[in-house]
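Lecture 7, part 2: worked example. A protein chain together with nicotinamide-adenine-dinucleotide.
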Amino acid sequence: MSQTLVDTPAQAEEVGTIDHWIDGASAPGTGDRTGPVYDPALGIVQKRVRFATAADVGEAVAAASRALPGWRETSISKRQQVLFAFRELLNSRKGELAEILTSEHGKVLSDAAGEIARGLEVVEYACGIAQLMKGEYSEQVSGGIDVYTVRQPIGVVGIISPFNFPAMVPLWFFPMAIATGNTVVLKPSEKDPSAAIWLARLLQEAGLPDGVFNVVHGDKEAVDAVLSHPDIASISFVGSTPIAQYIYETAARNGKRVQALGGAKNHMLVLPDADLDLVADSAVNAGFGSAGERCMAISVVLATDSIADDLVAKVKQRMAGLKTGDGRRSCDMGPLITEQHRDKVATYIDRAAGDGATVVVDGRDGEFDGEASGFWLGPTLIDKVPLDSPVYTDEIFGPVLSIVRVEGYEDGLDIINRGKYGNGTAIFTNDGGAARRFQREVQVGMVGVNVPIPVPVAYHSFGGWKASMFGDAKAYGPAAVQFFTREKAITSRWLDPATHGGINLGFPQHD
Ligand code: NAD
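Predicted complex, written out as structure tokens:
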């Protein structure tokens, strides 16, 4: 089967195309390039998605710019009402969205529902924007003078999202961007673009004025047009580290505010006193959920020789019970996103054996509850992975769990802190003092204590350290209010004839 990302208009006609969404309506755009959208469980191209040209991106930005003055002037209460309506619609129709996610991404339906639930949390947080956007006021900072700050929207914001959370990652950003009075141009992943269009239609149904939320599909050409457009004020990006770094540098050079979240390699440090059944359950859940295609997946378990053999046996036993197959059936794990990605992930299994590691479970040997043409790879467990093997150093982004043997806490901490990434990590122990030390010493942005996937709730903010995030504004939570607004400070005096001071050329001081 062809994995070509660009094909002819004639081929697009055969399966149907996914259009852009500009100014409240479907828009075919001006280009003739399209890309395939697979059903990964069936291994077929189910639709083709249009790739935007720079002119198409220009149309979307123009629509967002036209909508901006009206939306910015809309009262906070009215903006909240639209978000409340959107929350109700999304909650009542989330099953439809889950089916879209499963058919284009491949994740099992229950996992798709979980993704939507975490996105809904952000919508609910955004419904409280009236409280979150309040400024500060200082009375009588000098004779008859008051100072206050207000937060104002930054303008048209650009969002560029990855394939692995086609609903949740856009939801991390656009509810807060809209709530704070901005208008949006979203460029979702070209691999699973339908969720973004479904959300756009739902926003319209919730009463969002046309042009406030626009979607353009495409690849680098569309992204570069977003990055260079002078009327886009900020970029919120989530994806792999090399692209995140490119986005950060390019957008910053073009004078935009930018937050760019990148890739990860997340470690779980297991101390010898930990409950090994809890550890094994957690490692399997966090390693193989969504087939390992999560930026917060656990991909490395660090354990001492004293417990590692027992732990490997317990993980292996649980893996035997996992069912990999079509996410619409009752399976635990779905296929990978493309055939190409499945093949790349599988190369690490060969590489592991060559690098001296022990392949305990080889996911290529599994049975799959789905069409033979699906992009299958079963859960894979590799023990004694050396630190210089690409199995350890690379972000594999698939259902491959590595065990690295360590000497103890200090060695484990040192390995984590020497890592290139700093997205998530977890410690498993019953020793509160050790956990507290870990939480203070580890150089990672999100830390779990006996919690394997420590994704913060919507009223805290999400983001990693080091090569997992470029820029200093995290996603959602209080950080989003800061990112999507500019603060203005006003120093005000209403003239009182009794205190009018006459001419004074000195620098203003408070007396
Ligand atoms: P990706 O970097 O390939 O693509 C992300 C976005 O960038 C897509 O919209 C894509 O069209 C665009 N893009 C791709 N190549 C480009 C280029 N050369 N120039 C400009 N734009 C380009 O990432 P992906 O494969 O879609 O997603 C998986 C990656 O995302 C993993 O590395 C994962 O760790 C990361 N991720 C990180 C987080 C986080 O919060 N840190 C969350 C989810 C996913």
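Residues 277 and 435 are 18 Å apart (CA to CA). Residues 54-73 form the longest helix (20 residues). Keep this in mind for problem set question 3.
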